[in-house]
Structures are given as structure tokens and as C-alpha cells.
Amino acid sequence: MVHNKKLPLEEFLEIRKEILGRWKTGSHPDLDLDRAVEKLKSIPDHKNFAKKLRKAKELGITMIQPRAGVARLDEHIELMQFLEKEGKADFLPATIDSYTRHNRYQNAEDGIKESEKKGRSLLNGFPAVNHGVDGCTKVMESVNVPMQARHGTPDARLLSEIIHASGWTSNEGGGISYNIPYAKNISLEDTIKYWQYCDRLVGYYADHGVELNREPYGPLTGTLVPPSISNTVAIIESILAAEQGVKNITVGYGQGGNMIQDVAALRTLEEQTNHYRQ
Is 72 among the residues known to form the active site? Predict the structure, then answer.
């Protein structure tokens, strides 16, 4: 049974040992939490997702983030640089490939090798776990705006470890929004537990002076969803994240096509999240 209670540090660290052993890139020395904390503290404010969002809200400006991801590291970096320079993106994504979303890292590895042979991406996203801390750090250092992982992963624990240790300051998803729209054979109880771990990791960093952003996936299925449902999921996932120590949470909403309803839904979502924040 799942409970909305903060994971004790000892339990979190014990689970962490097993998570980091799931793929060879989990042994990277920068995954030491002390080293990761220092690395994240060195990220300048303009490349910190949470801090840049806060500044945008204070200034009342709208910012832009596209969606994109390819298999090969150099090609992904080239894509990110193009979106930043030519697309004027304020935040950059790494849309993660489907194999990684289902923790099928060997398949992702095979996809990288085939992509190298063919000279084009044969995966539908960026396999961050396979590229590991070194590759993901290279992506982060190649651009001048914040990086976020966007995916659809029911169990994103190893992925979350790697992207944050690489200096990526935001992670999208949640135990509901990254289950029902993306998976059919995993229970909500399991995915909520998995995402409690992801949030506890962000909470750990917050406890050590590092502010990271978390974003529940507002659009859910990407089809027409009643605002009452999408807002409820966003609020529940925000509460779950906050319990684990997350300090900066972005709630999202997918437009439904009726401007009046969409504005009302956004205002309601903002009012409700402000209420729980207080």
C-alpha cells in the first residue's frame, strides 16, 4: 500500500543502491550525492530551470520550450543548439526514447549503434540513461539555457538520477500522469512509489541547497481531457512531490479548444495550487 509520507533517508539510500545497479552508467562517480550537489550548485542561475521560471513570472513574460530528441549524442547537441539559437528557445528538452521509458536499456543501446551505422536517428528520442552522466553533461554544457527531461516513463528512477547528476535542473512526470497515458500493465500504486523516489531525490537536493524544478504532465493523453480531471491530477501529483521535499513545481494544462474554458481552468488551477502552497 502506498502512503503520502516522505521516504526516510535511510530507506531512500537503500533503494538507491539497487536503482544505480540497473545499468552500467549507474556506476559513474558523479552519481555520488555529494559530488552531484556541488555540480548542481555550480550551475549558473540562467541555466537553472526553477530560477529562470521564477524570474519569468516576476517579469510577467511568456517563455518557449519545444519538444525534441534523437538517438546520437552529437546530433542531439546540434539539435539543441539549433533550437536555442534559431528557435530562440528559453528552455530546452530532451524528449526521451520509448525504450528508455520502459527501462529497456539494452534495446536503446542497440538503437544507438544502429543509428550510428545508418547515420540517422532510429530512436524516437534521446536515450539519456545509455549516454550516461558524461553524455548528458556534455549536452548541458553545450547550451546556455536550462535542460529538462521530458519523457513518459512509469519508472524514471535511474533516468532521474542521471539527468540531475548531469546538471539538468528539471524533470517532467508523475505517478499518475506518466502511468495512465503511457502504460497499461503497471499499477498506479507502483508508479506512485517510483515517482515518490524521483521526488525524494529532488527533495534531497533541496535539503542541500539545490533548487530543482518538477513538472507534472498536464496534457495527460494529449487529447481532449476535461479540465476537472487534468487539474485534479496536477494537484495530486504536486502534493505528492511537495511531501517528498520538492520546492519548485510547475503545473501544466493542455488546451481544450474553448478559450473561455481554458482560461477558467488555468485560473482555477493557479488558485488551487496557491491554496495548497499556503
Answer: no
